[in-house]
From TrEMBL:
InterPro entries: MBS1/2-like, ZNF706/At2g23090_sf
UniProtKB keywords: Cytoplasm, Nucleus
Primary site of residence: cytoplasm
PANTHER family, alphabetized: GEO09665P1-RELATED (PTHR21213), ZINC FINGER PROTEIN 706 (PTHR21213:SF0)
Cellular component, GO annotation: cytoplasm; nucleus
Protein name (Swiss-Prot/TrEMBL): Uncharacterized protein
Length: 89
């Protein structure tokens, strides 16, 4: 009450940063660990939705166009890889 606000923050600041940084780091790590399983779960429907690309030659499903290109190069090296637009549209 007797101390002005500016002087109060001056006296509390030197102690806080180290304490807050350590706590914030631990909290961030705990938060990241908590969020990790959620994010992993959320990718499952996303992956299923992305499985719409299929090889037109052997009908092997590909999760992405990149994978399909790799598949073409591996399984059908003599075939021309179709364009991404022709596969997704
Ligand atoms: Zn194929």
């Amino acid at each position: 009450m007797a101390l002005p606000p500016s002087r109060l923050s001056h006296t509390t600041l030197p102690q806080l940063p180290t304490m807050v940084r350590g706590a914030a780091k631990a909290q961030a790590q705990a938060k990241a660990a908590k969020n990790a399983p959620k994010e992993a779960k959320s990718t499952i429907p996303g992956r299923a939705a992305a499985l719409k690309l299929t090889c037109h030659i052997c009908r092997t499903p590909a999760p992405s166009y990149k994978t399909l290109v790799i598949h073409y190069e591996a399984k059908h090296p003599k075939e021309t890889v179709p364009s991404e637009a022709s596969l997704t549209s």
